[in-house]
Fold this sequence. Notes:
heterodimer; A: mainly alpha; Fumarate Reductase Iron-sulfur Protein, Chain B, domain 2; 2 domains; four-stranded parallel sheet; 10 strands; globular; B: 234 residues; mainly alpha; Fumarate Reductase Cytochrome B subunit; 12 helices; 0% strand; elongated
Amino acid sequence: xxIKTNIITPEERKKAFAIPxxxxxIERQRLPVRYHVEDYDVEDRPRRFLQxxxxxxxxxxxxxxxxxxxxxTAKCARCATSCQIYQATGDPKDxxxxxxxxxxxxxxxxxxLGGMLKGRLLVTGHLTDEMIEExxxxxxxxxxxxxxxxxxxxxxxxxxITHLGRYILSEIGIAPRxxxxxxxxxxxxxxxxTSAIPVPALLDTLEFxxxxxxxxxxxxxxxxxxxxxxxxxxxxxxxxxxxxAETLMGIAAVFTATGDSWTIGTGYFDGINYGLFYSxxxxxxxxxxxDAETRRxxxxxxxxxxxxxxxxxxxxxxxxxxxxxxxxxxxxxxxYTHRVWKEGRLxxxxxxxxxxxAYHDPCNLARQRxxxxxxxxxxxxxxxxxxxxxxxxxxxxxxxxxxGTVSIDEIRPYRTTVGGKLxxxxxxxxxxxxxxxxxxxxxxxxxxxxxxxxxxCEVVGLHDLIYKAIIFDDSLKIPVExxxxxxxxx
Amino acid sequence: MDALLDFARGPFFRFSFAIMxxxxxxxxVLDLLGAYDAYRKAGEKxxxxxxxISRSLQWFIPINRVFxxxxxxxxxxxxxxxxxxxxxxxxxxxxxxxxQAIGFGWFTLSKEWADWLTILTIASGIALFIGRxxxxxxxxxxxxxxxxxxxxxxxxxxxxxxCANLTISPKLYQLLMLTHVLSAxxxxxxxxxxxxxxxxxxxxxxxxxxxxxxxxxxxDDAICTTLNKKGAPV
Lengths: 490, 234
């Protein structure tokens, strides 16, 4: 089934594209974009952009893709058919191929022999301030979902070009403030995580959740802290500790049912990696923190919670930056839960969740066909009214808040009017009452989307439902009197 | 005219064919060298071969893809590509020339098939050109070469079809045959330097796009040093 979406109305367009900044800020920063940026050196931007581009090319392998793409791009516009941004705006400047061409033109003109000769002879095509401003806008209009790459007959990965474009821009100081500030706190702040949660607050939260679960399930469900030698060292999107209690409770419940050893490290407990969205340098630094904490605790595996980008950045880049074959194996919590369920170590009650349930594939889990069937098998096992949204799997429609855009609160009108429009139409067409999105980014965006679009649908994590349906072995259940004693002790 | 035609069919054909073959070989070699370098530097080298192969095959045999989006445009585009590949390579007259030159030939299309394929190629080429002009998304993206190519590719097809099927005066025949040969040679010469290089690069695309995500290890320090940002705050 193909979801049809209508182009937004002029009123919606005005609302979605309004710039929430004072004119003097736009003037000072010379940046007419919707997201906030910290003040940066605005002088000589083209030269500094090219310097950063050259440095990145020198020390990376992006030339391979850039050379390949400039030689083979056919401009067929097929990518436009699958881009949820273009489908909503109808603006040809939102066609992925056009967006990529902004950077490919710079590469062609300044970093290839033919382009340099042609540019010098005709005195044309050199990078200007206006081109930088257009890139700064365009690369953050994209959600980097990479769905367009599936539709490109010549195999161009526009998400990779968006990724590189943002990286170069960040090196001259143009990156969303929301992401930069969070990453600064994560890498250099006292708390060491993007939500600035101090360890005592974390411990309090976890203790409170354990009490809640004891009350609710009559089972002692703990969050093991700083356990050395655990099989799994757990890194959720740290915002889950504040906003997704039920997801964490579900995960802890699964481990209690299986008895496998896992732990949360107080040295570092954040799976979020905004480096994936704007800077390879930050990506590397953050991934190395995950490695260091797992090493400190002498853990055996890195376990990432319900978060697409956190999972992809650890799965794909922990081996890259932390020793390849010697790096810790990375698994996502869905893989773990699916495996223990398959092994018969997890029992789920099929009579608890009776609503119409659908599953949303997070781009970072599904686009490369990493995690598609496992959550569906789990859901079908205990949700009798499971329904499928189409398109799905590796062809899923992005929630509209991908690529870090969900963390930029000031662009919410854009995300829920433009970015998520196609997704909203898909949710309406599917008619689900509960939408399962095992990703912190997707959940936040989808909740805002259903609220702003007026869709009657609850957005939850996969383990939120598992928590509801989990059946504990009787041996784990605490008798009522004892439960009260335990609670008193707590 | 005879001398010119002989020159076009002889030395100039060999020249243009060599430019095409060597030029296309160059872009493949450059791609493979780039891939080797990227693979050598990659911090993690496990490529998703299953995904690469299946997605490459999806576009070699795009049956599943055709009707998903823009079915008319996609069907016409496929027809155009099939005609472009099959007619020049398997036309009896072309194979005969190759046989005379290199001593062996290969499978040839029947006259009926060749004629129908030629007509379909011409019709689909015109349709693609019109589509590019009148579809907003396509025309917005199009460069000069994007408009030129469908038209340029049709010149040898139209001239060849007329020469092979219509009764025309010997002088016009010679003129059209010269147009046929020279336009094909111009195409040969331009192929490696324009988007038509995708004819040899496309099989490598999925491989390149997946390998491109295999970043080198420890670039943070190197880039900081190059950009004078060592010790700078995040």
